Amino acid sequence: MIELDVNPKVIIEPTCGIGNFIKAAANSFPSASKIIGVEINQSYLRELIAKHELLQDERCEVKHGDFFEFDWTSLINQFNHMVLVLGNFPWVTNSQQGTISSENLPQKSNFKKHTGLDALTGKSNFDISEWMLIHAIQWLQNRDATLAMLCKTSVARKLLSYIHSKKLNLASCATYKIDAKKYFDANVDACLLFCKFDSSSQNYFCDVFSSLHSSECHRIGYQKNLLIKDIDSFNKLSNLYAVNSGTKWRSGVKHDCSNVMEFRKIDNLFVNGFGGSVELEETYLFPLLKGSDVAQNRINGTNRYILVTQKFIGEPTEPISQIAPKTWRYLQDWGQYLDNRKSKIYQHNPRFSIFGVGDYSFKFWKIEICGLYKKLDFRLIGEIANKPAILDDTVYFLSFDSERVARQTFELLNSSSAINFYSSMVFWDEKRPIKSSVLNCLNLSLLADLEYLTADARR
C-alpha cells in the first residue's frame, strides 16, 4: 500500500454510516487529536454507538446531522490544525435519487451554470457525490487540508474540472483505481481521490495510478484550457488544436419518443414501436441510422425510418396537415405520447417538435461516429433510398454537399495524426467518451497541410 504522508490533527467524515471509516482513522492516525463523524440515519448512529470500543476513544465524536443542512464551515473553522476529510459519498445521480423518492437531496440549482440546452438536458444531471465533493473542497480552501474520498473516476475528473473552472486552490491531486465490483458490487470505474490544499497553489493536474499499490502513474491535466487524458501525447500534436477550428460536429435528432417517431418499413406499411401499422406519406420520413448501426458499420441500408417534423428548430408544424394529411392524422392520434415528453426543451415550442435538426441534417454525405462506443471508428455514408440518412442523438456527424470533400475529410480523420490527437483527449471509461467538444478541437486545415507535407517527404 502506498504511503501518502498524511498526518492530520483533525479528521472529519461527513457521512459516517456505522463508523467503519472512523474506526480505521482512529487506528491509522494515533496522533490525531479529534475524529468527528456526522450521519443523518439514526439507525446507523445507534449501531455505531453500540460499538462501545469505538466511542471509548475520547478523540471520537459522532453527531446527528443532514449533510445538505449542516454548517460544515463553522465546524472546520474551529480547528487551526491540518484537517483530513474522508469517506464515501453516495454513488447515484440526482435523477436516480428522484426515482427512488429520496428526500435527502441538495436544493435544486444549476450549480455549474450550464446555459441553453445544456441546462435543460443531460448536463444538468450530476452525481450527488459530485455536488457533495464540490462543497467539501470549498470548506477546505485557503488552509492546510487534505481530502481522501472514494468516488467514481468520472466524478474525480469533474471535480478537477470544477476546481480549474473556478480557479480554486489545489496543491496536488491523485487517483488510485479500486475494484468497485469486488468491494461494492458496482460496475463502474472507481478510485480513491486524494487532494491536498493550501493557501496559494493552483496545480490543475492529477496523477492517475492503476491501483492502491502502484507507484507508476500517468498525468492528466489542463492544456489550452482543456482536460487532457495524456499530456505527453497531446503535446506532440498540440499544433493541431484550435479553439475555433471551423469544423462543426453535430449530434443527431432528439425526439424522446421512439415508439411514435421511429418505424420499421414492412412492404408499404410503417410499423411504429407499439406495433401499430400505419400508412404515411414519405414526405417527412427519412431512413434512420442509430448509434449501434454506425458503430457496427451497418450503414449501407436500413429498414428503420424516422419522422422528421421540422427542418429547423422552432419551425411551425401545422403545415404538415396540408402537405401530408396522413402524417398529421397519425401525429394527432398518437400525440398524447409526444405531449407527455418530460424534457423542458419541448415546452413553449410547436407541438410535435424535435431537436438536433437543421440544414446539415438533410445533406446527402455525412461522416459520423457514435459517442457511446469506446473506439474511434469514423464512418462515411451517402444517401439511402434516394434520401439523406438521419442519425439519432448518440451520433456525432459532419455533413457535406460534395462527395469529393467528404471522402477527403474521411481520409484525414482516419490518419494516424488525427487518431493520436483525439486519443490523447478521450477518457474511455466515461458513459459517452466521444464528445463534440473534443471532436471540434481538431483543425482539419492544419491536419491536411501536415498530411500533405508528410506524404511529400515520403516521395
Task: Name the features.
10-stranded mixed β-sheet, 459 residues, Rossmann fold, 30% helix, 2 domains, 6-stranded mixed β-sheet
3D structure, described in words:
This protein is an alpha/beta fold and 459 residues long. It has two domains: 10-237, Vaccinia Virus protein VP39 (Rossmann fold); 250-401, no CATH class. Helix content is 30%, strand content 21%. The chain is built from 19 helices and 20 strands. It has a ten-stranded mixed β-sheet, with helices on both faces. Strands 14-13-12-16-15-19 form a six-stranded mixed β-sheet. Strands 11-20-17-18 form a four-stranded antiparallel β-sheet. Helix 1 (20-28) links the parallel strand 1 and strand 2. Helix 7 (128-139) crosses helix 8 (153-165). The longest helix has 15 residues, at 444-458. The chain starts with 9 loop residues before the first strand and ends with a helix.
